[in-house]
Amino acid sequence: MSGLEQLYQQIILDHAKRRVGDGLQEPAPGHASGESHQHNPICGDQIQLRVELDGTRIVRISWDGTGCSISMAAASVLTELAEGVERDELIGLIDQFREVMRSRGSVEADEEVLGDGAAFAGVAKFPARVKCAMLAWVAAETALLAAA
Amino acid sequence: MAAAQNVPQPSAGPGAGQQHAEALDAAEVSRLRADFPILETQVGDQPLVYLDSGATSQNPRCVMEAEQQYYEQFNAAVHRGAHTLAVEATDHFEAARAAVARFIGAGDDEVVWTSNATEALNLLAYAFSNASAGRGGSAAERFRLGPGDEIVVTELEHHANLIPWQELAFRTGAALKYIPVDAAGALRMDLAPEVIGPRTRVVAFTHVSNMLGTITDVAALVALAREVGALTVLDGCQSVPHLPVDVKRLDVDFMAFSGHKMLGPTGIGALYGRRELLNAMPPFLTGGSMITTVTMERAEFLEAPNRFEAGTQRISQAVGLAAAVGYLDEVGMGRVAAWEERLGARMADGLAQLPGIRLLGPDGVARIGTATFDVEGVHPHDVGQFLDARGVAVRVGHHCAQPLHRALGVTASTRASTYLYNTEQDVDAMLNAVADVRGFFGAEA
Ligand SMILES: Cc1ncc(COP(=O)(O)O)c(C=O)c1O
């Protein structure tokens, strides 16, 4: 696989188009929610992301964002992965994703755990793009704190 | 190419390049390329196609050699000490200043070294600020700003020629106004006479837009500023490297530019200022090397340019920059400009043929070799990454011109920018790569 294909795996290109969770949703009555806005001043990518919880379980993530295919695909993958997951479990997933992203390619991504998020392992070899991949995940982390 | 002169020589006269009307030709460009070792670089398995000189240019061997020779033979603190090396270092430092001054048509004492254009513009803004705080006595009256005064910029500006003026306005209570652009990014010259008025004290504007490469009508803005007695500040960052520039002919009061964009090293730039203005202006940075008499209470300052050069200076960089302008002079700036105009037109024509590609910027405005575009359905970051995989280096993002991007209704863009070492093959490699971008990202209809 060329460097470009490692970076832009088909899963990523597909998610960049599907954009699961695109469009902020109002939380249902009785549900807790938290929000975060993240911005990458280098490229202007931004995301407004909302986490909706029923007790400690994540019901839904929704977001409005603009950015490159990596950042939008990362938001989409996260949204899909997070639905129905316990809050602490999502925090663990975010930590794992971050570890892979920061590893410059030395840490393998566990597909069993990270699902489509494992396709981002190739991004870790492109340090300039790691921030793109992390944007939505950092937003989710911050939104969870805000919801607490 | 005899440009490998190591030490600045007082060779070509001011604006020597303008005597050459015709462009460089492909054979000559190919000879010039041999002077730039980095152009041999491979990116992965692709030869480098460097189209990001608008961000920073590459160095010819003679520039690197000049710096190395300085360190091997002359390195010492300048303007201090009486030993032989110190004298030689000072000679080289001042010869470098003279060479750069001549290159832009200025007097030797009208060029102040700075680290880059950003520092040059901040130096000016802080000199105004210090004058406004009462420093500089009656001579500095022209630089005193307060409520009721106006600073004028344009919507084209690089952040470096915007934020220092915003901050100056905040510090002094002066108002900041700007000449807007139209939907295509052309400066609304029709509105300039309304924006520049009796309260205007400073008009700061770019000679060439770093985002679009479009060339500003300097004479028109200078005339309007003169009419109301305002000082003019030209951002020459994108013009001095690519066009014949003569500050006296342009008749501006100040001009800022950066060495690294004109084949020189990083860490060196300059502020041109008319002699009588520089000598009336209070200093920005203070300390050693810029004073005459110092007591525990106060200090007297040297004349310009030294009064603005506090502390140990960037000597090897100045020497390197002098070698760069020697190289440019030898090629001839008029010929550089004509060649780049040709490359720019080839980029614009080629991009116009590609479906889903929109060239940004107004029609019918002269440009340097810069083409900035939007790829429908693909984010500029992805465009840049795709081009990089083909060895093509371009700039993506907001290019430190967020307001101009906003005015054009985009958050980011892709910019290809040329220099004298770029070939028509470079342009074609870029065009071929751009032609494949939308297919790769599935953005084709
Ligand atoms: C028009 C313009 N002004 C100012 C600057 C700032 O130059 P520097 O970063 O070298 O200070 C640049 C460089 O990007 C520029 O293109």
UniProtKB/TrEMBL annotation, chain A:
This is Iron-sulfur cluster assembly scaffold protein NifU. Residues 8-132 form the NIF system FeS cluster assembly NifU N-terminal domain. Residues 22-41 are annotated as: Disordered. NCBIfam families: SUF_scaf_2. InterPro entries: NIF_FeS_clus_asmbl_NifU_N. SUPFAM superfamilies: SufE/NifU. Gene3D superfamilies: 3.90.1010.10.
UniProtKB/TrEMBL annotation, chain B:
It comes from the Bacteria. The keyword Nuclease does not apply. Residues 1-23 are annotated as: Disordered. SUPFAM superfamilies: PLP-dependent transferases. Its EC number is 2.8.1.7. Pfam families: Aminotran_5 (PF00266). Signal peptide: none annotated. Coiled coil: none annotated. It catalyses: (sulfur carrier)-H + L-cysteine = (sulfur carrier)-SH + L-alanine. Keywords: Pyridoxal phosphate, Transferase. Its cofactor is pyridoxal 5'-phosphate. PANTHER family: CYSTEINE DESULFURASE, CYSTEINE DESULFURASE 1, CHLOROPLASTIC. Belongs to the class-V pyridoxal-phosphate-dependent aminotransferase family. Csd subfamily. This is Cysteine desulfurase. It comes from Zhihengliuella salsuginis.
